[in-house]
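User: Some background: our group keeps a shared notebook of sequences we're curious about, and every so often someone picks one and asks for a predicted structure to add to the entry. Today it's my turn. The entry only has the sequence so far, pasted here. Could you supply the structure so I can complete it?
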Amino acid sequence: MLEINDVSKNYKGYRALKQATLTLPRGEIIGLFGENGAGKTTLMKCILGFLNYKGQITLDGHPISRKNIARLSFATCEHSFFPNLTASAHKAFYELHFPTFREKRFNGLMTFFELPTHKAIRHFSVGQKNQFEVILALCQGADYILMDEPFAGNDVFNRADFYKVLLGILEPTETVLLSTHLLEEVEQIIGRAILIRKGEIVGDISIEALEDSGKTLIDIVKETYQYKSDRVVKALSDLTDER
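Assistant: Of course. Here's the predicted structure to add to the notebook entry:
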């Protein structure tokens, strides 16, 4: 169980997280949604211990430390691989440092994405780099897999196929926390949606309960964020009035 209790993070007087509290059990695919700057990446980096913060984050009752950090993996659009190493060299490195590394999954995903194994990662396209980042996170052998906008640079067909593969390969004990703006695409694969706005958790929704209500995730997001449906009409009106 990953527990986030009353976590806050300030950046030079700006509060990026405000008393965030969440419980993330094993075996879920959870969507983390919010506007740009809402605090999604900050929350993930606090979980991983990349940032100092106020509050408490524990994994099965223990603080995140060198003793248990391998149970967490991270796929970030900022990238965390070694650009001068090949995919094969990364595999050897991960096998050496992570005893639970999933070799079969790694080989299968490399084939699925059609990525070269003997080419330095710096020569990959942006989409390929993001694919490789996701592969490493999924194959490390972690219990909690955090993904921050992992599908940037990938076309809609690659993304759709990957969602299906993800559902097929995850084991019941693995949890994915997925931060993305692609709400409509991932609504079909997640079981829970967490909404964050201006650093605060403003919604924690079961997709099953959402389906029973007859509403879509987009409906709930618009209600929660008080989306103004007339903002485009108003903007166009204001702009055309200047002519």
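Suggested note for the entry: The chain is about 35% helix and 25% strand. Residues 126-139 form the longest helix (14 residues).
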